[in-house]
Amino acid sequence: MKKVRLISHAEGRLKRYGVDRELVIDAINNPDEVVRGKRKGEIERWIAQKLLDDEQMLRVIYEFKNEDIYVITLYISKRERYYRGGIREDKL
């Protein structure tokens, strides 16, 4: 299993939103939805989405580097804004 690492910006977001690190790892390993993020040069980014309740979800933006997963940022958003019914673009 790939190791999940958080860059310093993502660590700051944990504190800002009061999100537990284990929830971030769970969102990546067991997402309710995964969509493509924006490319950063040659590196493709992904967004793991984990439903928190009927109104909110956690969005975790990450990328693969070497053999690890690097969390770039994370935030809590309204479910109605981004959730598409459970699609998994990482499995297409």
Report on the structure:
This protein has 92 residues and is of the alpha+beta class. It has one domain (4-84): YaeB-like fold (2-Layer Sandwich). It contains three helices and five strands. The chain has helices at 8-17, 21-29, 79-82, and strands at 4-6, 33-36, 45-51, 56-65, 68-78. It has a five-stranded mixed sheet with strand order 1-5-4-3-2. Strand 2 (33-36) and strand 3 form a beta hairpin. The mean pLDDT is 94.
Give the gist of this structure.
The protein is built from 3 helices and 5 strands, in the order βααββββα. The chain is α+β, with helices and mostly antiparallel strands.
Mean pLDDT: 94
What is the helix fraction of residues, given as a range? 25-40%
What's the order of the H and E elements?
EHHEEEEH
Main CATH class: Alpha Beta
Radius of gyration (CA) equals: 12 Å
The fold-level CATH name is: YaeB-like fold
- Hey, roughly how much beta strand do the residues contain? 35-45%
Would you identify the regions where 5 or more consecutive residues have pLDDT less than 50?
A: none
Shape: globular
How many H/I helices?
3
Distance between the termini: 21 Å
Number-wise, the strands total: 5
Total number of distinct structural domains: 1
Largest sheet: 5 strands, mixed
Question: What would you call the structural class?
Answer: alpha+beta
Q: Mind telling me which CATH architecture this is?
A: 2-Layer Sandwich
Strand order of the largest sheet: 1-5-4-3-2
